[in-house]
Design a protein that fits this description.
By secondary structure, this protein is of the alpha/beta class. The protein has one domain: Arginase, Chain A (3-Layer(aba) Sandwich), CATH 3.40.800.10. A 3-stranded parallel beta sheet has the order 4-1-5, sandwiched between helices. Strands 2-3 form a two-stranded antiparallel ribbon. The relative contact order is 0.22.
C-alpha cells in the first residue's frame, strides 16, 4: 500500500511497521437527509493537523502510535453493494496483515463493510451499537 498524501494527524508509519491502518470510505449514497458525508474523511484528515495529540487523561500521545494512512477507497457512487464489498475487502486485507483497521467515512452504512470483515476475522465478535437521531422518533 502507498501512503496517502494528506494523512490523519501527520501519521507517518510505513505499512510494514504500523499496527493500525487507517482508510477512508467517502460514501453517502443512501443518506436520508443531506448528502455530504462523502467529504468526511478528507475533512477529518485536513482538520486533524490542528488537534493536540497528547491526552493528559490517558497519559498517552497519538504520535507514539504506529499508524499508516492508506488513503480513501474509490467507491462507486450509487452502488451500496459495491461500496460495502470494497470496504470489506480493504478491512479484510488489513486484518490478514495482522493489523487493526481504522475506518473514517462517510455515512453510517460504511461501518457495515468493516464489521463484516471483523466478523470473518473474529467469528465470536459481538457489537453493542447505540445511535439516536431524529429519524428514530415518531414525529420530528
Amino acid at each position: 500500500m502507498e501512503r496517502n498524501v494528506e494523512t490523519f494527524i501527520g501519521c507517518d508509519a510505513e505499512f510494514e511497521e504500523a499496527s493500525i491502518v487507517l482508510f477512508g470510505a467517502p460514501f453517502d449514497s443512501t443518506t436520508s437527509f443531506r448528502p455530504g458525508a462523502r467529504f468526511g474523511s478528507a475533512a477529518i484528515r485536513h482538520e486533524s493537523f490542528g488537534l493536540e495529540t497528547y491526552s493528559p487523561y490517558q497519559d498517552r500521545d497519538l504520535a507514539d502510535a504506529a499508524v499508516f494512512d492508506s488513503g480513501d477507497l474509490e467507491l462507486c457512487f450509487g452502488s451500496p453493494e459495491m461500496a460495502l464489498e470494497a470496504i470489506e475487502a480493504r478491512a479484510g486485507e488489513i486484518f490478514r496483515a495482522g493489523k487493526l483497521p481504522l475506518l473514517i467515512g462517510g455515512e453510517h452504512l460504511v461501518t457495515l463493510g468493516s464489521v463484516r470483515a471483523a466478523v470473518r476475522h473474529f467469528p465470536s465478535l459481538h457489537i453493542i451499537h447505540f445511535d439516536a437521531h431524529a429519524d428514530l422518533r415518531h414525529d420530528y
